[in-house]
Amino acid sequence: MDFHRLLQHKQQRWQRSSYLLIGLFLSVCVLYLLVGELWLSPFSAWSSLEQQLVWELRLPRLLAAAVIGASLAVAGATLQVLLGNVLAEPGVVGVSGGASVAMVILLLFFPSLNSPVAFMAAAVLGALLFTLLLVVMARKLRLTTARLLLVGVALGILSGAVVTWAFYFSDDLGLRQLMYWLMGSVAGVSWYQHLLSLVAVPVVIWLVLQGGVLDKLMLGEGHAKQLGVDIHRVRWRLILAIALLVGASVALGGVIGFVGLVVPHLLRLTLGSENRLLLPLSALCGALLLVSADLIARLALGSGELPLGVVTTTLGAPIFIWMLVRNHDSC
C-alpha cells in the first residue's frame, strides 16, 4: 500500500470515527432529556410541566456537561503538547486545584461578590497561576514524567490544605457550597450560569483551530521556529486559553477530574496524534463522556444522584493507573 493510500485510509478512519461519535452524542443527548425521575415520551405531546422540566432543568444541565467535557478534553490535549507529557491533565497536575483554591478564597473572604462572573475570574486567575508555575518548572528544570506528576501531586496537596482550612472556618452554607465544588456536579445549573459557556465555547473553537500549530510544536521548538511559529507568543496564548477553559469548567461544575487525561490519550492510542484532527474529536468525545457520566450519576441511585466527579474519577482512575504502568519506562 503506497503513501497516498495510507493517507487516504487514515483520513477515512478519522471521518468514520467522527460520524460515529456525532451519532452517539446526539443519541445520548436525546436520552438525557427524556429519562430521569419523570420519564418522557418522544412520541406524545408534553404538558406544560414536562416542558418546563426539560427547558429549566435538564437542558441547562445537559449543555453544562457538554461544555465542561469539551473544555476539559481540549485543555488536556493542549496541555499535553505544551508540557510534552502524555500524562498531563488539569486535574492531575494541579491546575484544577489552583482554580478551586481561588474560588474558596472568594467564597470565604468575598461572599458579597458571588456571581458567575466573579467565580469565573477567580477560577481563571487560580488556574493561570498554577499553569504558569507548571510550565516554568517543566521547561526550566526539564522535569521527567515522574517528577512532573510529583509536582502536580504537591500542588494538589497544597490546594487540598487550603480547602481543608476553608472547611474548618466556613459556616453551614459555605460548607455546602464547598462540598458542591469539590465533588463536581452540574445539578442546579441555570441559564444565567451559562454566561460561563459564552466564554468557554469560543475558546474551545479557537484551540481546535490551533491543531496545525500544535503539530508543529510537537516537532520541537527548533523545528517549529523554522516553520514560522512564534514560540513565545503561541505558548502564552495557549496558557491563557487553558486557564480560561479550566476556570470556566470549575466555576460551572466544580472539580471534575480525568476527562482531560483519558479522552486525548485514548484517541491518540486508537487514531493517532495529529492534533488538527485530534482536537475536534477530543471536544466531541469529552462532551459525550461527561454527558454520559452525568446520566449515570442521575440514574444510579433511585432516591438521589451521585456527584459527577465521583463517576468520572471511578471511570478515569483505573485508566490513569494503566497509563502510568504503560509509561513507566519514560519515568
From TrEMBL:
Q: Which residues form a coiled coil?
A: none
State the GO CC annotations: plasma membrane
The record's Pfam families line, in alphabetical order, gives: FecCD
Sorted UniProt keywords: Cell inner membrane, Cell membrane, Membrane, Transmembrane, Transmembrane helix, Transport
Which terms does the UniProt entry file under GO BP? cobalamin transport
PANTHER family assigned = FERRIC ENTEROBACTIN TRANSPORT SYSTEM PERMEASE PROTEIN, VITAMIN B12 IMPORT SYSTEM PERMEASE PROTEIN BTUC
Similarity remark:
Belongs to the binding-protein-dependent transport system permease family. FecCD subfamily.
Full protein name: Vitamin B12 import system permease protein BtuC
Q: Which organism is it from?
A: Vibrio cholerae
